Amino acid sequence: MRAGRLEEFSEKPKVVVAGNRHCAVARLGGSVYAFESLCPHAKWPLGFIGRIFLNREGRPMLLCAMHGGVWDLVSGEGTVEGKPAPPIRRYPVEVVDGDVHVRL
Amino acid sequence: MSIAKILREEFESKRYVFDELKRAASSLDFLAQFRDSYQFIDWFKATIDPILEINYKTGALWIRNATVKGIILWTRQGAWNEWAANSALAKLITEYRDYIDDEFLNVFAHQVSDEARHFYIRTKVLKMYGGSMEDFQPIKEWADLFEWPLRCATKRLEKPYFQAKFTGAFQTVELTATVQHKGIVDNAHLNPEIWKEPYRDATRMLVEFSREIEDDESFHWTIAERVWAKYATTPEMRAEILDCAVGALELSTIAKIKRIEAAESSR
Ligand code: FES
Ligand SMILES: [Fe+2]
Ligand SMILES: [Fe+2]
């Protein structure tokens, strides 16, 4: 699905809905990440409460501030309060002429 | 600019969410596309994310800028809300008990005890700030909001529709309340004004209470998730749920902004 223009996205995930499908999209500089809209922990939508950032090793991470869960957006692994949490589903992204496309 | 005004503008810019939900509610073809009830619930939560963001801010932005006088006014309305919630729920589990599955009847009763505890703590916090419920008149939008669930659900007074419609309205409000309280808990420390003596203890209590409420409201929302998981298996049922949920989402967001407006007008 076409998610929007590159510049519409930021480190604050945006939940994009098209028909009955949806995902969250976030951007750090020129890198765009797409993942499931709802937090794998307790299924709160990640737009209003999520943030992405680079950790000390430079890996893109997602923080869900609802209960402080953190997920690695490359491996999908995550923890909530130090305990392993269900992995986050990620989707392939393609940017063509500034248009962000997500393969769900 | 006042916080109420900022939130009102944000609300106007996100009206498209309500339009999308209404469009969905009127299209059985669209609602037939969900594989199962869980997929429908997930779609609902993803779609309303922008509205949850406003509700988060009705807690976050408000508490960052609140005065003690404003907190008193806000808490008076809050205490009334707990009372109003319980009068609707009490009616639900007595007058309408024949339209509710046994398994949900007890969960609603659990919610009643939570709302009674909320009322108790809210009036306690109110007293700590030096306020009281004397001469209180509720804001009209809140009165409308608490009338809505039974008004909407009784449009189909039959099993299983009634209970699904009721939770569509009432429990959706609980979902918005969860994030509002989360906003308060996350941001109260940023407002030095409300931590000054002699109100320090009252504010500490308000924050602790908001954390407690956040958990309860989240549990109250899961009552809808349970009912919907069981019954939102047909497009017709999904449309009936949305019919009540959209109104509740709209009303509860407006009512929260009105409550801030009223608290701000006391400056
Ligand atoms: S819902 Fe995201 S960490 Fe719990
Ligand atoms: Fe409550
Ligand atoms: Fe509640």
TrEMBL record, chain A:
Coiled-coil segments: none
Domain Rieske: 4-102
PANTHER family named in the record: FERREDOXIN-RELATED (PTHR21496), RIESKE DOMAIN-CONTAINING PROTEIN (PTHR21496:SF0)
Cofactor: [2Fe-2S] cluster
Protein name per UniProt: Ferredoxin subunits of nitrite reductase and ring-hydroxylating dioxygenase
Lineage: superkingdom: Archaea
Alphabetic keyword roster: 2Fe-2S, Dioxygenase, Iron, Iron-sulfur, Metal-binding, Oxidoreductase
The UniProt record lists the keyword Cytoplasm: no
Gene Ontology terms for molecular function: 2 iron, 2 sulfur cluster binding; dioxygenase activity; metal ion binding
Statement: the UniProt record of this protein carries the keyword Metal-binding: yes
Annotated source species: Pyrobaculum oguniense (strain DSM 13380 / JCM 10595 / TE7)
UniProt cross-references to InterPro entries, sorted A to Z: Rieske_2Fe-2S, Rieske_2Fe-2S_sf
From TrEMBL, chain B:
Annotated protein name in UniProt: Ferritin-like domain-containing protein
Organism lineage: Archaea, Thermoproteota, Thermoprotei, Thermoproteales, Thermoproteaceae
Species the sequence originates in: Pyrobaculum oguniense (strain DSM 13380 / JCM 10595 / TE7)
